[in-house]
Specification:
about 140 residues; mainly beta; OB fold (Dihydrolipoamide Acetyltransferase, E2P); five-stranded antiparallel beta sheet; about 10% helix
Length: about 140
């Protein structure tokens, strides 16, 4: 579709979009690492968050966990929810944005520094994608 061809200088353009057609019940399936070496990669199509059901050990609060939806090379989508503290930290530090190429890899359980327990070790890599400026709503200056 060529948007330039559909533009007119009067107010007779009646093109409409039905957002209901774009909604479905399920959403993208979750990516869950099961063993060391499991990974996922794709282009970020959306970023959100959910509240964890578990208190953070350091702060004692229920943290917000990033939820990143990726479009993989095979054009399927998958959802990465950072419930694990290391994955959450990696994502937050990476500054992930929509359009970025994103990868997450699980390296298994590792001993913590004090040697009293284990944690799930993840690494995240991000390659910035194209950036677009937000388009202000008509009549609402930014």
């Amino acid at each position: 579709m060529d948007l330039l061809e559909s533009m007119t200088d009067d107010k007779t353009n009646t093109a409409t979009v039905d957002l209901l057609d774009s909604l479905d019940e399920g959403g993208a399936p979750a990516w869950v690492a099961k063993e060391a070496g499991d990974g996922v990669q794709g282009t970020v199509v959306s970023i959100g968050s959910v509240k964890s059901n578990y208190k953070d050990g350091e702060t004692g609060i229920f943290p917000d966990c990033p939820v990143i939806t990726l479009r993989k090379a095979d054009n399927t989508e998958v959802r990465v929810t950072a419930y694990q503290s290391i994955l959450r930290k990696e994502i937050n530090e990476a500054g992930v944005q929509v359009g970025d190429l994103f990868a997450a890899k699980y390296f298994g359980k590792k001993a913590n520094k004090s040697g009293t327990g284990e944690y799930h070790h993840y690494k995240v890599a991000v390659r910035p994608g194209p950036r677009t400026a937000p388009v202000p709503a008509q009549g609402r200056p930014f």
